[in-house]
Amino acid sequence: MNIESIVKTKLIDAIKSNYAQDVELKQIQLQKTRREIEGDITVVVFPFLRLSRKSPEQTANDLGEYLQENIEEIESFNVIKGFLNLVIAKSYWISLLNNILKDSSYGYNSNNPDAKTIMVEYSSPNTNKPLHLGHIRNNLLGYSVSRLLEANGHKVLKVNLVNDRGIHICKSMIAWERFGEGKTPESTNTKGDHFVGDYYVRFDKEYKKEVAELIKGGLSEEEAKKESPLLKAAQEMLRKWEAGDEAVVALWKKMNSWVLAGFDVTYKQMGVSFDKIYFESETYKKGKKIVLKGLEDGVLYQKETGSVWADLEGDGLDHKLLLRDDGTSVYMTQDIGTAYERFEEFKLDKQIYVVGNEQNYHFQVLSLVCKKLGFDWAEKINHLSYGMVELPNGKMKSREGTVVDADDLMSEMINTARETSKELGKLDGYSTEEAEKVFETVALGALKYFILKVDPKKNMMFNPQESIDFNGNTGPFIQYTYARIQSILRKAKDNGVDIKDVNTEVSLDEKESYLLKMLSEFPQVVSQAGKEYSPAMVANYIYDLAKEFNGFYHDFPILIEKNEEILNFRIQISKLVGTVIKNGMAIMGISVPERM
Fold first, then answer.
1. Nearest to 424 by CA among 485, 468, 467, 478
2. Which of 88, 284, 520, 521 fits 329 for a cystine, CB–CB 3.0-4.6 Å?
3. Does residue 335 form part of some domain?
4. Among residues 523, 515, 521, 463, which one has the least CA distance to residue 35?
């Protein structure tokens, strides 16, 4: 049991002993004592005043005296305006250091008694274009949240739902059929997803030309958009695909295979993976069956035109389309079918969809429609809604070909890491192969950290140059701190320093004590971040820790320290900082180089 848990338990006893009153654990508020005040743990006393019927100061003194008498780790206490500040003995922190040094997975809760089976869906690309910067945030967030949940002891299934059917897919197919001249990714030496994406952009370009001509011919803009021959051809192709037309299906398989091969290359470089990949083309029929059953049962209704709808007005929403007039599916239909399959197969405790905040309404409706259809798992659907990523020069539009491509961005980041490292002379003496590996590690660490350090709910501005700075709140700064620590440990070994348990009576400076207390907080940070699905909490804790360590490194000699006990402590605390940085960065899918 950690010191915070001990304090909470004894506070319940203190209130019972002093005031003959009962208090629940959830009513007890503990805070980290502000750095300028003496103390380690602060008890907020105000919730107990109705029980004590005394002033805040008197109540705090009563509780402080009881805690000091009954918890041997409490050395002293002070009271400031109704806040009880507890001073924990340094010997406790050093004993804690000795214990956690033996745990290479420190911070992770592998024996969580409340472990759940949780599925996390992320990526969800369309097979008509390559992954872009928005997908990068989605993938990195989904993968990191999965790692975070695993660190909290949950069984996690990482899945991808590939949107490989629909009118947008048919647009690329029609464009290649009309304008491709038989070219392939191989014949043009183009990555498959980029190759197909170029035809999606080409469709939009040709479609706009047709609309402009039709408007010149006397149609309104709205009429022209509907009457475009190219759009009608794409719509007809979708109908043929759903009817199983052999030629259309063969073309669809060929073009999808090009895109999927390209995606695999991007995922590998990005460092994300999946336990299972679902395809919309395989799940949408199940959704149609469920919708038609809902129609038969009177849960849904059908318009005269043939479309099927859900009436959600009683729930404060509107009417939601589930099947079009021609019987084809919409996204909601396939999401219903996919959710049904997943809960049936894996008996999930929770399904988390990592999708941008523009889809908040969609997932609100998904849960509500599934509940109306009688599925008891409907309330286990969770939407991890995240903000958009923008660049200094504005938003991206995939139809117009103005997106920031994921592959290009990663390549640019590696080039920037290479140039920055050479300028700083950080990899002098490395072989070309070793240096290139570090460039990639630093580049991807910079990209991932810059994106994940932002609260998922917030929109963010991505600046590639700023992200790769070796100073400030960046991935490279943290990676360099880790490499510095590994250098210290190697030199200590080379110097024959005898590393052993730290003497609990060793004299510590205030900064050393503070660093030790920070390290003790890591498990709580991981736990809270897991509850909030927020890798940003881990990211910013790791940055604060790295910053604190660098201050400690600057102010205190380590390897030239003459006192053996202090030398041993400083090496051991450096080692633990390295372990925590490595474990925290791993949650974000970020590697840390041993040398830089």
1. 468
2. 284
3. yes
4. 515
Taking residue 177's Cβ as centre, other Cβ atoms within 10 Å add up to 16
What does DSSP assign to residue 379?
G
Residue 114 lies in a domain: no
Separation CA 243–CA 187 (nearest Å): 31
Residue 50 structural domain = 3-88
**Cβ partners under 8 Å of residue 547, min gap 6:** none
Nearest Cα neighbor of 439 from 470, 418, 457 is 418
**Residue 574: which CATH number?**
1.10.730.10
**What sections of 109-228 are H helices per DSSP?**
133-151, 167-179, 185-188, 192-216, 221-227
Which residue has 């949650």 as its token pair?
Answer: 587
Looking at residue 179, its pLDDT comes to: 97
Is residue 12 classed exposed, middle or buried when 0-12, 13-18 and 19+ CB atoms within 10 A define those classes? middle
Rounded to whole angstroms, the Cα distance separating 208 from 437 reads 45
**What does each C-alpha distance from 187 to 127, 192, 193 come to in angstroms?**
20, 11, 14
Count Cα atoms within 13 angstroms, Cβ side, for 416. Answer: 21
Residues 287 and 146 in one domain: yes
Query: Do the Cβ atoms of 222 and 235 come closer than 8 Å?
Result: no
For the chain, give the number of residues: 596
pLDDT of residue 400: 46
In this structure, the strands spanning 308-311 and 301-302 are antiparallel
Q: Give pLDDT, residue 393.
A: 64
Number of separate domains in the chain: 3
The first and second tokens of residue 455, run together, are 């609260």
Residues of the chain with pLDDT under 70: 393-403, 426
Domain end point (choices 88, 107, 142):
88
CATH number at residue 284: 3.40.50.620
Residue for token pair 């809760």: 109
Residues 497 and 462 in one domain: yes
Task: Please report the pLDDT score of residue 426 as a whole number.
Answer: 66
pLDDT for 405-461, tens place per residue? 899 999 989 998 888 877 777 677 788 888 899 999 999 999 999 999 999 999 998
pLDDT at res. 396: 42
C-alpha separations of 443 from 135, 268, 404, 424, 489 in Å: 18, 15, 17, 15, 25
For residue 400, is it within any domain? Answer: no
Q: Residues near 568 by Cβ (< 8 Å), separated by ≥ 6?
A: 497, 498, 499, 500, 502, 503, 506
Instruction: Look at residue 402 in the predicted model and tell me its pLDDT.
Output: 53
424 and 363, same structural domain? Answer: no
- What integer pLDDT is reported at residue 398 of this predicted model? 43
Give the integer Cα–Cα distance in Å for 447 and 466: 10
Q: Is residue 268 part of a domain?
A: yes
Q: The CATH number of the domain where 36 resides is what? A: 3.30.1360.70
Token pair 């900064």 is found at 511
Residues 173 and 248 in one domain: yes
Separation CA 406–CA 411 (nearest Å):
9
* 321 phi, psi to nearest 5 deg: -70, 135
140 plus 276 within the same structural domain: yes
Domain final residue pick, 88, 109, 132? 88
Indicate whether 334 and 413 sit together in one domain: no
Query: Hey, what are 513's tokens?
Result: 């004590």
